[in-house]
Amino acid sequence: MIERYTLPEIGRIWTDDFKFETWLKIEIFACEARTLSGEIPEADLELIKGKAVFNTQRVLEIEETTKHDVIAFLTNVSENLGNESRHIHYGMTSSDVLDTALSYQMKMSGELIRKKLHELIEVLEKRAQEHKYTLCIGRTHGIHAEPTSMGLKFALWFEEAKRNLKRLDAAIDSISVGKISGAVGNFEHLPPSVEDYVCSKMELKPAPVSTQVIQRDRHAEYLSSLATLGASLEKIAVEIRHLQKTEVLEAEEYFSKGQKGSSAMPHKRNPIVSERIAGLARLLRANAHAGFENVALWHERDISHSSVERVIIPDSCIIAYYMLNLSVNLIKNLLIYPENMSRNIDLTRGLVYSQKVLLALTKKGATREKAYSLVQEPAMQVWADQSKSLKEILLESPGVKDFLNDGEIEEIFNSDELLKNIDAIFKRTVELQEH
After folding, report:
1. What confidence score (pLDDT) does residue 431 get?
2. Do 155 and 282 fall within a single domain?
3. Last residue of a domain, one of 90, 115, 139
4. Are residues 109 and 160 in the same domain?
5. What residue spans of 176-261 are helical by DSSP H?
6. Does residue 254 share a domain with residue 291?
7. Predicted pLDDT at 435
8. Same domain? 101 vs 84
9. Where is 214: in which H helix or E strand?
10. Do 226 and 240 belong together in one domain?
11. Neighbour-count burial of 166, counting CB atoms closer than 10 A to its CB (0-12 exposed, 13-18 middle, 19+ buried)
12. Does residue 431 fall inside a structural domain?
């Protein structure tokens, strides 16, 4: 088992120190494999293990001259060794080290992101159960539609988060490969057994086929999974931003004591966390696009992808982790206002029951076209005259009264059965969650 870094800061994985530590592991594992086959004397291997060290600042200093990071690293390591340094990097190309290390860093980052995504799933499940029967208005096109459940919103996000987990798992599995197959991937100077050994020690799988590099469709898949995750988090954030509008105020980000919303207006309580999440999602999508651009390289390799990846991969991993951390705390502490939800349901004075009226009329024998006309005309009156409710107008409508009596009209506006099937939905998602 190789050393595990348990520091909560995902940024640690993308430091020069961590990168060089990983490079050194790969080089030493390759020497171990060659020692097992009798190519390197055991005494030389012990010297390498004991004396092969690096100094990050020294590596960067050498790179100023070499303009090549791996050569600078190997030069620094060799400064601490004698003749046994000839065994290090034997038969390998830079990308054997670079790409195997990058896969390891992406896998490690993915595991941290995965853990944080599990936290989000758990908190979404909890809030879904908490507000399973909290009635709120549903909106389509931003306009009041029919009542729904606030718990159903959380359940929807919960289910989407589980899909993101599946996508992330697949992406982590796809990127968890290494290669020690040489300059064009044909093992000319080292046998596949060395690659097998190194990958096993790094808890990676050998890439079945490679060129000088691991193929970049794997990296594109990984970045795409993070971008999709980011889009889902943005979706949640945008909904919360809408629900926090002053004239809506059905939900609100937690506003801590001493927090300030505006330098000019002391009354302000802004959805800054949700806005931050929405903005950062754009970076993940942009980085994923760059990842797709990196898939097509010249022949067995060029380096057009290299400079791009030094930015987009660390940034995307750190951003995704940060967004998840924000989202967990956002959902966990989100303030919910059921009273305002009830107020907003009543805002349109019964218009949200229009489909129930339409269906009741068809059950009584009206054609759909006739029923629609009978309901739409009173509904338009409600929009125009704010002193009237839909129920009041229907009770005075001769056309509607031809099909429905007063008691039947009154029953249509009973909210008791609005969530009659919510249990069935929850049984298909939240209550199937394995613990």
Report:
1. 74
2. yes
3. 90
4. yes
5. 192-201, 217-243
6. yes
7. 44
8. no
9. none
10. yes
11. exposed
12. no
Tell me which DSSP letter residue 179 carries. Answer: -
* Same structural domain, 174 and 290: yes
Digit-coded pLDDT (tens) for 221-267: 999 999 999 999 999 999 999 999 999 999 999 988 898 888 899 89
Cα separation of 60 and 203, whole Å?
28
Q: What are the start-end ranges of the E strands in 159-209?
A: 177-178, 205-206
User: How many separate domains does the chain show?
Assistant: 3
Phi, psi of 354 (to 5 degrees): -60, -40
| Distances 3 to 25, 156, 202, 203 between C-alpha atoms, Å | 10, 38, 10, 11
384 and 339 inside one domain:
no
- Which range of residues forms the domain containing residue 292? 95-180+213-258+265-343
Tens-digit pLDDT profile for residues 49-79 = 999 999 999 999 999 999 999 999 999 999 9
- Mean pLDDT, residues 355-382: 96
**Two structure tokens written together for 3:** 């050393």
- In this predicted structure, what is the pLDDT of residue 6? 45
Question: What's the rounded Cα separation, in Å, for the pair 170 and 110?
Answer: 11
Element (H, E) at 430: none
Confidence of residue 44 (pLDDT cuts 50, 70, 90): very high
- The tokens for 107 are 């896998």
Is residue 141 flagged as an active site residue?
yes
CATH code at 407?
1.10.40.30
The catalytic position among 141, 267, 299, 435 is 141
- Tokens standing for 84? 């046994």
> Are 321 and 360 in the same domain?
no
| pTM exceeds 0.90 | yes
Catalytic residue among 37, 262, 304, 415: 262
Q: Which residue has the tokens 């994985």?
A: 13
